[in-house]
Amino acid sequence: MPAAEAAPACATIHGVRRRIAERAARLAPGPVWLVAAAVVALELAVSARYGFHRDELYFVVAGRRAAFGYVDQPPLAPMLTRLATALFGTSPSAVRVFPALAAGGVVLTTAVTARLLDGGRRAQLIAALAMGCAPVTLAAAHLANTTICDLLAWSVTLACALNAIVHGRSRAWLGAGVAAGLGLENKDLLLLLVAALAVALVLTGRGRVFLDRWLWAGVAIAVALWLPNLAWQATHGWPERTMSRSLRREHSTGSDYAGVVPAQFVYLGVAATGIAVAGVRRLRQERSLRFLAVALGLVVAFVVGYIPGRPYYTDGLLPLVFAAGAVAIDQHLGAGGSARRWLVAPPVGLALSLVVILPVLPEPALAHVPGIHKLNYDLTETIGWPALTDRVVAVYDALPASERAGASVFTSNYGEASALVMFGARRLPPVLSAHNNYALWGPGRAADDTVIVVGPTDQLKPHFASCRQMATFRSPHGVDNDENGAPISVCSGPDSPWPVFWRQLRRYG
């Protein structure tokens, strides 16, 4: 290219870069972008350690069976997993790219929320650090499931609602509608936020908000985005309602009620508790923000009272709470005050707890961390799926050739089924399960003369002449998880074909 032509082109490129930098600076100050980038980088750095989580395996399989819905969640998470595997291959690090990016988005949205609450650069940085170092953010962003996308959807919806209600920028409801609609395609839990906000606006005397035509335009956008999943649910008998009732029964024990409140502080990070407490106090005391305090209280009351075994269901409110707390602290410090301890506390807290949040230890070391399965259930669930597959394959290979010809595999849960589909597709007969969406997919034309059963045989015993245990799976290195100690059995002599009793096997949870 001649020099005369190159100069204007370079000027144009520099101009574009400058405008991008200016817009980024308006969104959040430079240090906040560094925090967001550091969170993304940390997640990507450890993304290949250990293995797939059961939900990730499930979503890979579900993504291959694309639909507008599944019995246990809307379609967004499986769709993102399918896109990730198409772009980057089928590996743990590949499916975790989008969750890592979502975590960066949560950090940025937290800083934006602080700015909307009249926080300056320092307040935005405190809020971003608190959110970026929160155990729930880092643990959720490590896995390709629904939690981190839910966190992002809640934070964006709340930021847009705050912008519309407090600052009078009505068109921000359009952004809230987009975030809520996409959030509902990820998880129905966002309905809890919408309902809590609506009730809170009425209770705090802000009912005039419902006269804003931009609000209803946002609602229309959200419904339009959610409509495919709604249609799927309606045509399949609303299975997510059955799923919700099952989850409530499963997660409403005495120990769940005892642990739900302490868990709130664990998920936000004990070192950042002061910021959260300051945030709740500010939302409650400032009249213009009181509707947010009421919404927060309604969400917490619902989770504590209705499904305490899912304490992280409240964590979509953390960006708001941290943002409000950071602004309150910054205002208390004044222009000349030192914010060092508030800036240092979240990273220090993270450093002290990182080994139980992310896969930084060698796999064998997990077996020697007391209570690791309870401290971070999801972390230990990423160990041993290929080994489980190999154990099932060994049982299958040991069968006489006549039995292998009419065999299938039945598992007690979707994690086992998905692992066997992923790692044993060429080595095993058809893999079935009656758990969650596997129940809907059904047995197809799978044989039933001989069935290898992974997990308890209680479901199949009434329908087969005999079931005998052939092996026991032991997790690699003795790491404690749900599959460690799972029996592997062989059932034979069915009293009828799969389709006859399949509905009796169906289990949601």
Give the topology, please.
Layout: H1 3-27, H2 30-46, H3 54-64, H4 76-88, H5 92-95, H6 97-116, H7 121-133, H8 135-141, H9 147-166, H10 172-184, H11 190-203, H12 213-235, H13 239-250, H14 254-268, H15 273-285, H16 290-306, H17 318-333, H18 340-353, H19 363-366, H20 372-375, H21 377-380, H22 385-397, H23 401-404, E1 407-411, H24 414-424, E2 431-433, H25 437-441, E3 450-454, E4 464-472, E5 487-494, H26 498-505
Parallel strand pairs: 1-2, 1-3
Antiparallel strand pairs: 3-5, 4-5
Helix pairs in contact: 2-6, 2-7, 3-4, 3-24, 6-7, 6-8, 6-9, 6-17, 7-17, 7-18, 9-10, 10-12, 11-16, 15-16, 15-17, 22-24
Average pLDDT over all residues: 93
Q: Low-confidence spans: pLDDT under 50, at least 5 residues? A: none
Rg for CA atoms? 25 Å
Number of helices: 26
Helix fraction by DSSP (H/I, runs of at least 4): 55-70%
In total, how many beta strands?
5
Total count of domains: 2
Major sheet strand order? 2-1-3-5-4
Approximately what portion of the residues adopt beta-strand conformation? 5-15%
Largest sheet: 5 strands, mixed
Distance between the termini: 63 Å
Give me the secondary-structure category. mainly alpha
Shape designation: globular
